[in-house]
Amino acid sequence: MKPVRKAVLPVAGLGTRIQPAAKTTPKNLLNVYDRPILAHVVAEGRAAGIEHFVFIVGRGQGAIEDYFDHAVELESGLEAKGKTAILEDVRSDLLGPGQMSFVRQMAPLGLGHAVWCARDLIGDEPFAVMLPDMLMNANPGALAQAIAAHEAVGGNIVVVEPAPPGEAHKYGIVALGETAPGFDGRLQTMTGMVEKPAPGTEPSNLFISGRYILQPGIFEALGEHAKGAGGEIQLTDAMLKRLRAEPFFALEYQGTTYDCGDKLGLLRANVAWALADPAGEADVRAALGALLGA
Ligand code: G1P
Predict the structure, then answer these.
(1) Is residue 240 situated within a structural domain?
(2) Residue 294 lies in a domain
């Protein structure tokens, strides 16, 4: 079985739900506690063994490329002032030579189209898709959990979790078959999936939450450019086509997801990450308590 070495990160979305905060800053560079959302997601990928990140970007998103490269003035300034800890923290997010690629998605035609734009860079090997709006707090990380499942059963892995009551219609929803051995019953074969089901028609309450391991055959299905929910080329529809040819498994991962494409989700993620920092937790609790009048 070929290892999962590359990850595709579709970042070109307009960030409609979070405007005007993302008007001049790419939405995935908005902050969660101590670094951009995207830096947290890339760290999750690196911890899972990803060696090459393929960012699918739109116009005006050059700051993403700059973030993962050296900032010469900043680094030399920190060095001159002896701010070693800050310098190390800044440098810890840099990607190495040849570890990042940027592909322009020239029109916002949907998530499936964004992933299809990576086809030549992925080639003939299984790969990860990470939706950077979805910040996942988990240990081991959500992608590492998906890769462990892939190593156990092969095929395609889709990370899922229960949808909040009444919200399944906002997501891709999976239909499930048998339970695979191990993983405490959290790994199940998929028998179907539907993108943005009409309320009341959902085949389960488990939604596709933003981490996938896919076989390269997906590009054949994506290349049909069939439009689905919202008139967009949907990754879920292409996966459903590939379900006839390859096994798909849904992994209910262990962790908490924050939808950072949403104002409240971004706020919750900031609080969660702040509380998780042992050095700052007491101050964060005191500040929150004062704000809430506790
Ligand atoms: C996308 C996927 C959907 C998934 C969701 C998670 O939808 O198409 O299957 O459940 O991300 O956030 P979008 O949020 O782009 O509408």
Answers:
(1) yes
(2) no
The CATH code of the domain that includes 162 is 3.90.550.10
Mean pLDDT of 197-220: 96
Q: Does the reported pTM lie above 0.85?
A: yes
Q: Is pLDDT of 294 > 80?
A: no
Query: How many helices (H) and strands (E) in the chain?
Result: 11, 13
pLDDT at 13 over 90: no
> What separation in Å is there between the alpha carbon of 170 and the centre of ligand 1?
8
Alpha carbons 216 and 6: distance in angstroms, whole number = 11
Q: What is the span of the domain harbouring residue 61?
A: 6-287
Task: Please give the distance, rounded to the nearest whole angstrom, from the Cα atom of residue 205 to the centre of ligand 1.
Answer: 14
- The three-state secondary structure class of 259 is strand
Pick the closest to residue 38 from 4, 15, 19, 59 (CA basis): 15
Q: Which residues of 239-271 are buried (b: 16+ CB within 10 A; e: fewer)?
A: bbebbeeeebbbbbbeeebbbbbeeebbebbbe
Q: β-strands 156-162, 248-252: how paired?
A: parallel
The whole-angstrom separation of Cα 154 and Cα 150 is: 5
Provide the domain count of the chain: 1
Report whether residue 265 contacts ligand 1, using a CB cutoff of 6 Å. no
- Ligand 1 centre distance from Cα of residue 110 (Å): 10
Instruction: Tell which residue, 46, 193, 50, has the closest CA to residue 125.
Output: 50
- Quick one: average pLDDT of 57-65? 94
The residue count of the chain comes to 294
Question: Percent of the chain beyond pLDDT 70?
Answer: 100
Rounded to whole angstroms, how far apart are CA atoms 240 and 218?
10
| CA 3/CA 232 separation, integer angstroms | 31
Instruction: Tell me if 139 is assigned to some domain.
Output: yes
Tokens 């707090």 -> residue: 137
**81 in any annotated domain:** yes
For ligand 1, is residue 156 a contact (CB within 6 Å)?
Answer: no
